[in-house]
Amino acid sequence: MEHIRLPKVENVRLIDKISSRRASVGTLYLTATHTIFVENETEIRTETWVLHSLVCSVEKQATTTTGSPLLVHCKNYQALRFIIPQERDCHDVHVSLLRLSRPGAQRYEELYCFSFHSNSDKEVRGQAWDFLSLKDEYSRMGVPNHLWILSPVNRDYKVSDTYPAELYVPKSATHPVIVGSSKFRSRGRFPTLSYYCKENHAAICRSSQPLSGFSARCLEDEQMLEAIVRSNPRSDFMYVVDTRPKLNAIANRAAGKGYENEDNYSNIKFQFIGIENIHVMRNSLQKMLEVSEAWSPSMSEFLEGLESSGWLKHIKAVLDAGIFIAKAVAEDGVSVLVHCSDGWDRTAQVCSVASVLLDPYYRTLKGLMVLIERDWVSFGHKFSHRYNHLDGDPKEVSPVIDQFLECVWQLSEQFPCAFEYNERFLITIHNHIYSCQYGNFIGNNQKERTELRHQEKTHSLWTYLWENRTDHINPLYRPDHSQTQGVLRPVTAPYCFKFWRALYNRFDRGMHPRQSVIDYLMAIREETQQLEEQLVSHEEVRQDRRADDIGYVPNHTLFPISCTTFDQDHLIEVAVLVLVFFLILCSVIHPRK
Amino acid sequence: MEFAELIKTPRVDGVVLRRPFLPTVEGTLCLTGHHLILSSRQDNTEELWLLHANIDAIEKRFVGSLGTIIVKCKDLRVIQLDIPGMEECLNIASSIEVLSTLDSVSLMYPLFYRPMFQVIEDGWKSFLPEDAFKDLESMTEEWRLSDVNKDYSVCSSYPPLVAVPKDVDDDTLRKAAAFRHGGRFPVLSYYHKKNGMVMMRSGQPLTGTNGRRCKEDEKLINATLRAGKRGYIIDTRTVSVAQQAKARGGGFESEANYPQWRRIHKAIERSSILQESLIKLVEACNDQSHSMDRWLSKLEASNWQTHVKEILTTACLAAQCIDREGASVLVHGTEGTDSTLQVTSLAQIILDPACRTIQGFQALVEREWLQAGHPFQQRCSQSAYSNSKPRCEAPVFLLFLDCVWQILRQFPCSFQFSQHFLVLLFEHTYASQFGTFMGNSASERSKLNLSQKTVSLWSWVNRPQEVERLSNPLYEANCLVIWPSVAPQSLLLWEGVFLRWKRSSRCLDEAYDEMVHIIQYNKELQNKVNNLRRQLAQLETEEPLLQTP
């Protein structure tokens, strides 16, 4: 609270982005967690709440006769323009917001998740974290088995402090091989299992770059890769995919890093897939946002801006890489080792995109949660750095998981029946990766999160999403639909990629379709469900009536069987049914004169 | 038949057909006067029946004695025919070239076509101006139907009957017509029931460089204003284009002579530029390279989406003047047969829920395009692939359909029809067995006696099975004005036309079927539940009788 210089400012105007002439007047409040704007309109009193942790920039503009403008940009692409009457007030709000929105480096305890519903039952909260288990996920994939085992080597984060404690490795990879290999890889991130295809034993493995320099080699690392090849009995080679542009990889050699030399590793096929680095991606997003946030751009300005940002080109590159790997695994039955530099950005993108393409499970609500938990959270994607949770190095910030979520969205546009979740689900996840409201994404790796005791002190997003899953269901999804089955084979011709308006212009309500097909279908489905229930109960009433006619007296003290299993949501319906029953009973027992 | 001499080789065996998304077929190729037919002996493969009129361009290639003809259609489909024998191939190619570019109206297919379906309602009589006027009469008495143009002498591109202000006599109309481009004096396009405001359209005034004026024209349009009210003139050209028009005898309404009107200039491009834009867009869609930069830059350079945005923006402006400002509007460009009609018809889609029904949309196309004198035959004689020099071709109507599709995307539950209807109209404007889009005006169609000699597209569309196919399952009548967003982010490339033959729509079609299934199942259940309720209610009323001792 000590950071709030001014808790309340009156007569503030909030300017509408679409038509700058429109403005609403109200009161601005600063709380420990939110900026709240309450409109003066007495009838409705519309409130706008902005979480401090979602604020990415606060800009105070030159004072004019009408007041001091304050521009607040958020990480979820909300942009607000306040006009504060007194410059002094504006200054105070500005300074307060700057501090509130960015806890100092390493001050994790200030993050919103540590104060969000902190009083709730600790036991319930702890259980909620058990909702997803990676152990279950690996066993769903079929490991451990006779080819892959759970390795205790990183139990105390000693071999790699950015890797999870539980890792799956080829059975034939011995402890010294693993440790030796890890010493030859950036940050000790040795090759380990990401996805395993039960049907044909092909696997997607991931690691960081080898410390090969110009000529160095490491026997254990070579043995490690050999062990991966051998754990796929149907194939005598594997792909090693370096997701960086070749030039970048070559440049790394000068720093004693680099890529695998095909001559040193037996039975590998080496392949570059040029996905640009985090700095290029950061600038690309920045450029794209300039167009999407522009005030009334012409069509040419928009398309030119979209092109020059390169954003869709990068999305296509990530998706193409995922397709390459999915094809190797599904069609050729060949295992793939994926890495980039550290193996926590591009590698995470490509492995998870490939998983979505390969396995229908990741196209379900729970599946996508598990996938993010596995390929991103557990494998040490640096959430706090990339999404700027704390006041850190701006060069570490980059929209890496955003690109993964967008790839999934682009796929869902091509395969509208294949995904159990809708785009709102992806947008909600995106929002909370930045919001710090839940503890899932704080810190930069599992070790840090464990030290922060996030499972004791914070809530899990996944349970929240699961409890609210009806909002996130795609009504067109059917588990038995042909699109749902098997491997997705998307077309990646450039015209198949669209600008994701629902995310990047999320708060520009006027730009979105005014009627939502999804909402319409959801309402229909809900109604259908009610009708199905009514049908059952009406049928039963009718049958009972018929039974009455032939002199059988049913036991009316019992509900129709279908109703006894109703949960709370259906209490009202049950009540109505009881009433109907009662009325019918009355008419039976007390015949009208 | 005179076609016989144009067909040197009427039949070739062993021709291989390759087309998008369908398996390769080998069979016999036949040329008739109007069709290119390929049929195989197997029953399970689909035959190809292609109207010559649908062929935009062909290319020949030879490898040894095997010839290949690439056929590029006006509906943007590209198919390939491998024809054994050089001579046969050359003969076929030259026949197609001649048959697909026949200029003579009397040889056109609709005049030869006999319907294979039962005509329930003759489409030629479905949308008569006098019927449309009856609706207007029920709302207002301020307008009358004038037959000043009954022999097409006042305006060759107008229909015989037009709605004009009641207080303006035919003499005034004749004089006003002399002052407007092509004789297109201001006539009623739309009456806004909610507030009694109107939209009119016309050709440009012929003010010329010396600022000619015409009292009758001024009287005519002022007669549409309520006392003390101002109106808006929406000129679909930029100020400078309108200025330049003066040198050629055209011009615009000056403030001095039309003090009660405010003029707004917008920038909708002229037809030749639109044609070029279509050609560039289709070329971009057919680009084989996988480069995102190249695609986006070609898409941008085609300017197609820019045109969509400009047209929609202008239509929104017209609708806004009428609905929000409560003012009457006059729309014109130069001739008043292209951009003017795009604006007036789209404004009605926005304002009038009736135009969003299947019947209402046909009525709109009939009223605002066919009767209003859009020269369909000239505009649609070539499409995006043609190598011959364009004359008057332009995708004016296609752009209108694209704009309707954009609004449909934004209000998916407010239209009774689906995009299939829009695609169907696109196809039939370029090549059709029906006479609806033949000719360039009502007078031309009447001279050709098309209503007797051809079948109307509407006769085909308004059969129950076709209506069902074109219906939008999400439709729920929406009586409101619908304001589309014209932000670049909100306007998409119309995949259903431009990518139709590039990427399979299987997954999207499946999603559509799924949606239909969900809605149908719901309706079935509703019926069942209602039936049961009725039965129960019946039992209830019978019951006391039974129980009475």
Automatic annotation (TrEMBL), chain A:
Instruction: Name the residues that span the membrane.
Output: 570-589
Record keywords: Cytoplasm included? no
Name the domain of life: Eukaryota
Where is substrate annotated to bind?
A: N277, I278, C340, S341, D342, G343, W344, D345, R346
Myotubularin phosphatase domain: which residues? 128-504
Biological process (GO) annotations held by this record are:
phosphatidylinositol dephosphorylation
Which residues constitute the catalytic centre? C340 (phosphocysteine intermediate)
Q: Its Gene Ontology molecular function terms?
A: phosphatidylinositol-3,5-bisphosphate phosphatase activity; phosphatidylinositol-3-phosphate phosphatase activity
PROSITE patterns, per the entry: PPASE_MYOTUBULARIN, TYR_PHOSPHATASE_1
Q: Which Pfam families match?
A: Myotub-related (PF06602), PH-GRAM_MTMR6-like (PF21098)
Q: Which UniProt keywords apply?
A: Hydrolase, Lipid metabolism, Membrane, Transmembrane, Transmembrane helix
List the GO cellular component terms: cytoplasm
InterPro entries on file? Myotubularin, Myotubularin-like_Pase_dom, PH-GRAM_MTMR6-9, PH-like_dom_sf, Prot-tyrosine_phosphatase-like, Tyr_Pase_AS, Tyr_Pase_cat
Q: Which family does it belong to?
A: Belongs to the protein-tyrosine phosphatase family. Non-receptor class myotubularin subfamily.
Q: What is this protein called?
A: Myotubularin related protein 7a
UniProtKB/TrEMBL annotation, chain B:
The UniProt entry, under InterPro entries, shows: Myotubularin, Myotubularin-like_Pase_dom, PH-GRAM_MTMR6-9, PH-like_dom_sf, Prot-tyrosine_phosphatase-like
Myotubularin phosphatase domain residues are: 123-498
What would you give as a GO molecular function for this chain, any one? protein phosphatase binding
Q: Does the keyword Chaperone apply?
A: no
Locations listed in the record: Cell projection, Ruffle membrane; Cytoplasm, Perinuclear region; Endoplasmic reticulum
Q: Which PROSITE patterns match?
A: PPASE_MYOTUBULARIN
The entry's cellular-component GO terms read: cytosol; endoplasmic reticulum; perinuclear region of cytoplasm; ruffle membrane
Membrane topology, as annotated? Peripheral membrane protein
Kindly state a single biological-process term from the GO annotations of this entry: phosphatidylinositol dephosphorylation
Q: Name one Pfam family in it.
A: Myotub-related
Q: Which residues form a coiled coil?
A: 515-542
Which coarse location class applies to the principal site listed for this UniProt protein?
membrane
Keyword Cytoplasm carried by entry: yes
Which keywords accompany this UniProt record?
Acetylation, Cell membrane, Cell projection, Coiled coil, Cytoplasm, Endoplasmic reticulum, Membrane
Q: Which domain of life is it from?
A: Eukaryota
Q: What PANTHER family does the entry give?
A: MYOTUBULARIN-RELATED, MYOTUBULARIN-RELATED PROTEIN 9
Concerning its family, UniProt says: Belongs to the protein-tyrosine phosphatase family. Non-receptor class myotubularin subfamily.
Quote the protein name from its UniProt record.
Myotubularin-related protein 9
- Species assigned in the record: Oncorhynchus mykiss
Give the taxonomic lineage as stored in the record.
Eukaryota, Metazoa, Chordata, Craniata, Vertebrata
Q: Which gene encodes it?
A: mtmr9
